């Protein structure tokens, strides 16, 4: 699994700051227990192994014009990682570069202002517990 995540991340646009594979794997475990495929969550509003909402997908695709495809492609782990990477590069690039995993987790869970939402603290604790530090 770790090798697959590393290979997928090497295919990112050259401008994108790369996400730590351990962090990505922790998000994957928290969101879907590491499952892949057409996984619907949040009452059908989130899709795939990283539980991506359509508005998040639209935001990422708007930011990274090289991303093509349809929202349904979020069923695939490789595509979901690209969407998450673009989204976090848009809203939390400094956190990627500085390995600020708390900020990254909270923005991923709560949107661009996720660090201001107390509800994202519990999510961060779950991600941290799933990271192999």
Description:
- The chain is mainly alpha-helical and 133 residues long.
- It has one domain: Lysozyme (Orthogonal Bundle).
- It has six helices and three strands; from the N terminus they run ααβββαααα.
- The chain has helices spanning 2-10, 21-32, 54-63, 77-97, 101-110, 119-130, and strands at 40-41, 46-47, 52-53.
- A three-stranded antiparallel beta sheet has the order 1-2-3.
- α2 (21-32) crosses α6, α4 packs across α5 (101-110) and α5 crosses α6.
- The protein is globular, with a radius of gyration of 13 Å.
- The protein starts with a helix and ends with a helix.
- The model is unreliable at 6-12 (pLDDT under 50).
What attributes characterize this protein structure?
three-stranded antiparallel beta sheet; mainly alpha; Lysozyme; 133 residues
H-E order: HHEEEHHHH
Q: What is the CATH topology?
A: Lysozyme
How many individual helices? Answer: 6
SS-derived structural category: mainly alpha
The description of the largest β-sheet is:
3 strands, antiparallel
CATH architecture, please?
Orthogonal Bundle
- Tell me the name of the CATH class: Mainly Alpha
> Number of DSSP strands?
3
Radius of gyration, CA atoms, in whole angstroms: 13 Å
Please outline what is shown here.
The protein is mainly α and 133 residues long. It has helices at 2-10, 21-32, 54-63, 77-97, 101-110, 119-130, and strands at residues 40-41, 46-47, 52-53. The protein starts with a helix and ends with a helix.
